[in-house]
Amino acid sequence: MGSCARATRGLRIPSLDTRNGRPSSPPSRETVKTHEYSSANRLPPTSTYPSTRMSRRHIRHIFFWKWFPSDDPIAASVARLCILREDLYLETMALMEESIPSLDKNSPPWRLMYFWRNSVRTLFEIRSALEALQGDEGFRSSLLAQPRHFQEAFNELVQKIRTAHELLKDIRNEISGHVKLQAVQEALTTMDMDSNGLIELGPVISESHYQFASQLVGQILLRDVPTANWESHLEKTLGKTAALSAALEAIDIVLVAYRDTKRLWD
Prior knowledge:
This protein is an all-alpha fold and 266 residues long. Helix content is 53%, strand content 2%. The protein is built from ten helices and two strands. The chain has helices at 64-67, 73-96, 108-134, 137-144, 148-163, 165-176, 181-190, 213-222, 230-243, 247-261; strands at 12-14, 34-36. The chain has a two-stranded antiparallel ribbon. The two termini are 24 Å apart. Residues 1-50 have low confidence and may be disordered.
């Protein structure tokens, strides 16, 4: 996870308050406002966590029957985490890029919001998988056989995810895993009459974009928050979810413990 240091660029989200400072002419996609967040809310550097890396890169085929026996519930849980680990890695990398032209046709802020929403859903699934593993005596024994700093890093991440459970669940249910009709209706009801957003309609799909969708997502997230507190509320929310990117390292710790216990790398 060495490239995570690039996250010092920060997470950004679209500006959501369109009631003041309306432009005299429609701005281009490049001028859509963004909020840049402080270093406190950026993804943690990998130096914070114990390394699970080998001294050099290894690539090899694995046999599923050996690594993940179908009659072993722990094997299925670890395999589930491997899927979610790659989901979260992709989402994290997409959040840290300044520009991904093929995905920024609407705007970079929309791409960032999209992958942030998906990362919340993935983190919620990771929480479920980790809780299932922690309830298994065999897995707990395999983790205890690992170095103390591995155990501490894993337990710290599990505690963070447990603490953020309600936040993750609320975001997932309303705008991440689902886009609830009731949430959209409430967002539209609470919008100021002067709220406005951009729409582009072109002759082909790639030239048509509903940039106002970012305001709708933001209003769903903030509909119960006083306008004056929007930015501080978003900083707090993004800070909590960004800190959970350490799940990448925690899953690697799980795989190391699992691999060592079953002697899969011999």
